[in-house]
Amino acid sequence: MSARSPAGAADVPALLRSRLAPLAPSLLEVRDDSAAHVGHPGAAAGGGHFSLLIVSEMFAGLPRLQRHQRVLHQVSDLVPHPIHALSIKALTPEELPSQPQKESPR
User: Fold this and answer.
1) Cβ atoms 48, 9 nearer than 8 A
2) Closest among 6, 37, 10 to 19, alpha carbons compared
3) Is a pLDDT exceeding 60 seen at residue 86?
């Protein structure tokens, strides 16, 4: 398998981390949301649903579209398989503290 060839769904989080390393993230969270999309046509075909939170100085001064384009450039051959859907939140380190925090269950 070449360095840019698609892998099985179980390898997708590790593959995403590897592919996004050139963006020098200070924080990279990959979440597999596929279980929430069971029965969706893309999921039935084997494509997974993933969410990314990537924080990098490389996004400084870039609008959201260009940030997403940089991320997608690194992973484009993984779409539509093994990734059917990819939600991207791309921030600078300065923007991260201003993001709403998830409430912890009580």
Assistant:
1) yes
2) 6
3) yes
Assess contact for 71 and 20: CB atoms under 8 A: yes
Tokens 């992973």 correspond to what residue?
A: 75
Amino acid letter, 76 = S
Domain parsing of the chain, residue ranges? 10-93
Band the pLDDT of 3: cuts 50, 70, 90: very low
Which CATH number, 2.50.20.10, 3.20.20.190, 3.20.20.70, 3.30.300.90, labels domain 10-93? 3.30.300.90
**pTM attached to this predicted model:** 0.77
Sequence-distant (6+) residues with CB within 8 A of 5 are 77
